[in-house]
Every structure is written in C-alpha cells, then in structure tokens.
Specification:
Elements: H1 3-14, E1 28-31, E2 40-46, H2 49-57, E3 62-67, H3 79-90, E4 94-97, H4 100-104, H5 110-118, E5 120-129, E6 132-144, H6 146-156, E7 165-167, E8 174-179, H7 188-193, E9 198-201, H8 206-215, E10 218-221, H9 230-241, E11 245-248
Parallel strand pairs: 2-3, 2-11, 3-4, 8-9, 9-10
Antiparallel strand pairs: 1-4, 5-6, 6-8, 7-10
C-alpha cells in the first residue's frame, strides 16, 4: 500500500485533524518520506529506541505508536530525539503516531478496549478536552466491587506484574464506570459531576487521593502502559483487514 494512502486512511478513521488544536503530540506521520510503499507495519505503545529497533528487526516499513517522539515541537535534533530518529532513518522506516485521537476513539480507542474487557454497556464519550473526548464511560451489567475490578484489571491488562492501586472511596457497588487511560486523574471532577461510581486510569497524582475521597469516588490506577495497549492492538487488527502484515511489539514499563 502507498504510504500516503495508508496515512490518509488512518487519519480519516481516527479523526486526527479534530485533535490538532488540543494535543501536544503532532499526530499522523511524524517521520517519513513524501512517498513510498508499506507492506509491513509494527505497532507499539511507545516510540523508544528499543521498540524502533525491534520494529526494524521485524522488517517493518512503518512503526505505528501511541506515544511519538515529538511533543510540542523539536528545536534541536540531539540527545533523545537523535537517538530515536537515527534508527528510523538508518532503516528507512516511517513513524505514524496517534495520541489523543486513539485515546478518545469510541470503537478503536484505549478506553473503548478496557470498556470491552469490563463488559460495559450504554457507552458514551467521557473526558472532555476542548470540544473532543479522550475516554469513555458505560454501565456494568452486574455491579462490581472495588476488589473485583482490581482483580479483573490485573488479570486482563499488561501490568508487568505490578498491582493495580485502588482509592476505594466510592459506593460498595460500582456500576457506572468511566475510563480515561494513561494519566487521567484530572477528570475526577467530571466523573463526580456526571455521577460516576468509579474512574479507571493509568497513573495518579498526589492530589487525586484527596479529590477522590472528598468526592466519594473509587479510582483505580492500573498503569499508564497497561491501560494504553488496547488502541494499538485494535489498529493492528484494522491494518490486517487492510491486507498489511503486522507485528506487535510489547515493551511493558510497569508504570
């Protein structure tokens, strides 16, 4: 498939342009030529030296990641930027990135993947960023306890054997659940305002403890990496439907 055709199809499916003004990550093709062909795509959560080299070893023409290598601009091609871009150029491999668009996509996104694991119904967008969303909420068919949610997330997500932390301040029965993957405790207020019982995210901040306790909200911290594997895996399946060979590169951080 032509590289331009592939990137245009991904941009269209992920509504990349809608997040241009609200995302520090320049989404879409971050590194690559104006033209070329792609037959093999590697997918990973992070664009790091290890995943880039693994993609090259797999023979990929393009690496698709959730976290890219540019955040808000690049003034100098030195240090970490150089170490990550050098192997891409050396192996003539392009890099495509989808950050907030992949968080918020209601079918292919990270939050949507966790909602599927939890069996949530009546799903709607959650987690506003400007006019867009970065998460999803839904209603469990049968109420969970905090311990049951914790156990399910630990068994289903790639936590690198790290425990899921629980701020157990919500009701005994958790049915209305919101999900903002990665670093999502900034949406505790929205969860409280919309009568959510529990918020699932990746990592927390110190102030989240007091905010959750005062709001009567259960918050589960399942790890930034662990909560953000579903999106790239969903895109992997989509790419295979489009006739491309794929490789999934798993590099959990435990964080």
């Amino acid at each position: 498939m032509e590289l331009q055709t592939l990137t245009e199809r991904l941009d269209d499916r992920l509504a990349t342009d809608a997040y241009a003004d609200v995302d520090a990550s320049p989404n879409g093709l971050q590194v690559g030529p104006d033209s070329g062909t792609v037959s093999h795509v590697a997918v990973a959560v992070d664009a790091a030296v290890e995943t880039i080299e693994a993609a090259a070893d797999a023979g990929a023409d393009l690496l698709l990641t959730h976290h890219g290598i540019v955040w808000g601009g690049m003034e100098r091609l030195t240090g970490t930027h150089y170490r990550r871009i050098a192997p891409l150029l050396e192996h003539d491999m392009a890099l495509y990135v989808s950050h907030l668009p992949l968080d918020g996509h209601q079918e292919l996104g990270n939050a949507a993947g966790i909602a599927e694991v939890l069996g949530l119904g009546n799903r709607t967008p959650f987690g506003t960023v400007g006019p867009e969303y970065v998460g999803q909420r839904g209603r469990a068919q049968s109420a969970y306890t905090a311990g049951e949610l914790q156990s399910l997330l630990e068994s289903e997500l790639d936590t690198a054997s790290q425990p899921v932390q629980v701020l157990d301040f919500g009701p005994d029965e958790l049915r209305d659940i919101a999900i903002v993957t990665g670093s999502g405790t900034d949406w505790i207020e929205e969860a409280t305002r919309t009568d959510v019982d529990a918020l699932i995210t990746g990592e927390g901040k110190q102030k989240a403890y007091h905010e959750a306790r005062e709001a009567g909200l259960t918050v589960l911290l399942a790890g930034h990496y662990a909560t953000e594997t579903a999106g790239v895996q969903a895109l992997q399946a989509l790419l295979e439907e489009w006739g491309l060979e794929t490789t999934y590169i798993d590099h959990p951080t435990g964080l």
